[in-house]
Design a protein that fits this description.
Number of helices: 6
Order of helices and strands: EEEEEHEEHEHEHEHEEEHEEEE
Structural class: alpha/beta
Helix content: 10-25%
Strand order of the largest sheet: 4-3-6-1-2-5
CATH architecture of the largest domain: 3-Layer(aba) Sandwich
Low-confidence stretches: none
Number of strands: 17
Distance between the termini: 15 Å
Number of domains: 3
Radius of gyration: 21 Å
Length: about 325
């Protein structure tokens, strides 16, 4: 399942960030090729004699001199691996890694003005960006805007407090949507007014947003209205639940290689494959990595995040975020 099987890392430390989130500090072996801020890794750990693999974002700076790097993970109620990492993972444990991957990264030539916008655990890749910008001596203007339910739910709170006062190039703003701070300059969920208040010109500012689908949809719509869509880079940290009532639950889903066909239930192809007794490889289950990608022989599919429908023959799709529209045949 891992893209590069021979990468290994030793757990150095597990830091509890909140009651449900932890940072895992790792010392990789010599095959590790490093990462760009914003990228993720496939993370494999042995649990009950079975290797389980998930995808987590790197949260550390690229400039660490000790050879270590970290991933930061929120433990989801139904997340077997994330729960294990938060509650049971111990220092000195050997874990299995892929090389870092992903296109949600800063360009080689970083522009002066940047917006780093995040929600919930989506803070992890943009935190890697902010730390790297600090350590490389960025001299532009960076607006770091983060949304969390409350300070107790916020990852990296103490460090963000320190960065807010120590970084000359960055404005660090945090908005607590359920427990707002009395007297805070901004409150509530994201709106265009928040950008205006902070003096961010969307049309001229390279902007990164990472978080749940609802936040990203709102930001994307705002940038469309501002005619600034070309400045926006997005990464989802939670796939929206498929609305079965609205889904295109017609036709037959055929798993060609397995000789199995089933009525389309309207859920993702990955979920339907698992319901049919198949065990396709997967990592993130949210369209970030390519672990679940396979060939669709024919038929139309709808992307659960963007809503886009594609019907090309022999195209590669990520089955964790694609729902069949009518009859679909996949190579599985």
């Amino acid at each position: 399942m891992l893209a590069v099987h021979h990468v290994r890392a030793r757990v150095v430390e597990v830091i509890r960030e909140t009651g449900v989130a932890s940072t895992v500090v790792l010392r990789p072996n010599g095959t590790w090729r490093g990462f760009k801020p914003g990228q993720h890794v496939e993370f494999g750990v042995e649990v009950d004699g079975k290797r389980r693999v998930r995808v987590f974002s790197v949260s550390s700076s690229t400039q660490r001199k000790d050879g270590l790097f970290s991933v930061s993970v929120k433990a989801h109620p139904d997340g077997y691996v994330s729960q294990y990492l938060h509650h049971e993972l111990c220092p000195r444990t050997l874990v299995h890694l892929s090389q870092a991957d992903g296109d949600f990264v800063l360009p080689d030539s970083v522009p002066d003005d940047l917006l780093l916008l995040s929600g919930g655990s989506g803070i992890t890749p943009v935190m890697s960006m902010l730390r790297t910008l600090r350590d490389t001596g960025h001299r532009g203007r960076v607006t770091f805007l983060h949304y969390a339910r409350s300070r107790d739910d916020e990852m990296f709170s103490d460090e963000l407090d320190e960065l807010d006062t120590s970084l000359d190039f960055a404005t660090v703003v945090r908005i607590y949507t359920r427990e707002p701070v009395e007297g805070a300059e901004l409150a509530g969920r994201f709106t265009v007014e928040h950008l205006k208040h902070l003096g961010v010109d969307a049309a001229s500012t390279l902007s990164y947003v990472c978080g749940p689908a609802g936040l990203i949809a709102t930001v994307r719509d705002a940038y469309d209205e501002l005619d600034a869509a070309d400045q926006l880079r997005m990464e989802y940290f939670k796939v929206p639940t498929v609305d079965l009532a609205a889904a295109d639950a017609t036709g037959t889903l055929t798993f060609e290689d397995s000789g199995i066909a089933a009525d389309n239930s309207g859920t993702t192809i990955l979920e339907q494959a698992e319901a049919a007794g198949l065990k396709p490889a997967y990592g993130c289950r949210m369209g970030v990595c390519n672990t679940c990608a396979l060939k669709k022989n024919h038929g139309a599919v709808r992307h659960v995040i963007s809503g886009e429908i594609t019907a090309s023959t022999d195209e590669t799709i990520k089955i964790c975020v694609q729902v069949p529209v009518g009859d679909v045949n996949v190579a599985l």
